[in-house]
Structure formats: C-alpha cells, structure tokens
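Subject: Transcription and mRNA export factor ENY2 structure
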Amino acid sequence: MRPSVNRPPTPDARLDREKEPSVLEIINIKLIESGEKERLMELLRERLIECGWKDEMKALCRAFVKKKGRNNVTVDDLVHVIMPKGRASIPDSVKAELLQRIRTFLVSAAV
C-alpha cells in the first residue's frame, strides 16, 4: 500500500528518524568530546592572524563604520556585509591545512 500524497508521515516514523544523529552530528560530537574541535579553532585563529586575514577584516569593518557613521551601524549590519567577504578571502592553504587535520582525525577516530 502506497502512502497518501496528502498525508504527512506518521509521528512514530518521524520520531525514529529524529532519534538517530546524522553523520555530521556524530562527527561534531566526536570532535567536541575529544577536544579536537577546540584545537582546530585555535589553529584557525593562529593561521588567520599569521596571514593578515584578521587585520584585513578589521580594516573592512572600520571602513564600513566610517562610511555609514558610527551611530548608524549595528553588529548585524557588519556581519551581513563582512561575513561573505571574510569567508571568500580565507586563504586556500589555511582551508587545506584544516581539512587535512579533520581527515586525519576522522581516520584516527574511525568515524
């Protein structure tokens, strides 16, 4: 018997799927429990400072505030304008190093 197109799945079926964590959730839990997530975050901070990314983002924020006026800018405005530029300007070498560390962790944790 096929399920009706107009009816949502039964609550029991939905609850069973919600109980099982996704692969991403399992990886995130393992990263947090092992302390590796904090180490990766610290590595990212260090690399972004070393390559001048942090100073570049700070300068972009200051320029935006100066252009709009200090009293006319909210944190949300800054995040909305700066975040896409910030994400796009992270050096590929930093991304590659973090990705390699994550892969190494996944192999060692047998996820």
